[in-house]
Amino acid sequence: MTNRFDMNIKKIIVFALVLAIIVPIASFIGCERVQQVVQPATPQEVPDGEILVGAVYPITGRSSLAGSPVEYGIELAVSEINNSQHSDVKIKLITADGQSTVEGAVEAFNKLIHQDKVSIILGPGSSSQVQAAFPIAHQNQVVAISPSSAASGLSAISDFVFRTNLTTDVLIPNGVRVTQEKLGYQKVATLFDEIDLFAQTSDAELRKALTDSGVKILTTESFQTEETDLSAQFTRIKASNPDAIFISSTVADISNILIQGRALGVPSDIPFIVNLTLSRDLVAAAGDAAEGTITFTSWHSTADTLGNQTFVQNYSTKYGMEPNIWAAQFYAAVHILTKGIADAQSTDPKAIAAALAEIRDFDTILGPFSFNDVGDAVYDPVVLIVKDGEFEVFE
To answer: How high is the pLDDT of residue 66?
Structure first.
């Protein structure tokens, strides 16, 4: 069997071409990834000392709104792990600012790997950043786990890379099924950011899922990241008279999009359905314009998954606010990483990657968690709706 750690440049080029045409990755769980990870000849036991883990998230820039919740989620999880009497794993965290840009994520990965000498990195956050940073992890044989990126196909480049957020090829078909059954929409419009990778792949997955469900797409409108005037796009969308409007955008742009849509006369009985995981912060920023918005997501604060209510309570007590989706995702990712380290009983990144690939039905605040054969997450997706400024399960 060919060893994927010896992947040559030709395979990387082929992967990039495949990703560019958005070929969905199968979501079933397999053993191929485990078999192809090269195990170290002599596994090392986890030492009593700390293991260095890097974390890349947006401390500055357009997406820095998510920075504090991410920091708090990581901090809480690391504190629990380091103080646990049931695990020998101790984590020493080194953070780096992804700067809300692709270039920032690349710079952060290179710093953590070459200056700080970490062999494990948590992050980055966005799909565009992951597309650029994951090859660096592969080239340097460093384990990288992105807790929040969702564009399909990004984990397939290497057995060293994983993602704990659900991907668009899981979230969107489920979300379309659930919302179409409940709302009965037959004709819709889509609006997406033509620059952002997540938004591009999200809209492509969405249009496929809608077409497969027999829903007519009246118009597909696009815009560019940081574009502030969407009056032309919403004018055309309104004229098409859709039953619902699907939006795929970056975190930083979504509140403005919701506000503009309602301000430009999109009636409240036409729901916005967002293919981006909304957070409380984004809902608060959009105000009344967010009311009735539906989002496809991977976690909610009222879920009865194992440990979730304890997490919400501990986070709220410590930081004076309820956790949002970004805090929850990074918190869960730290615990998933810790299981991989403990199961590997080694500090060698190859052994840790192999152990992570074998995780099946591990209880987390996200629910019973597994990795599939390409390193993407497997657990139950959630559909939420904003009512009176709060999230409720859409059912």
So the answer is: 67
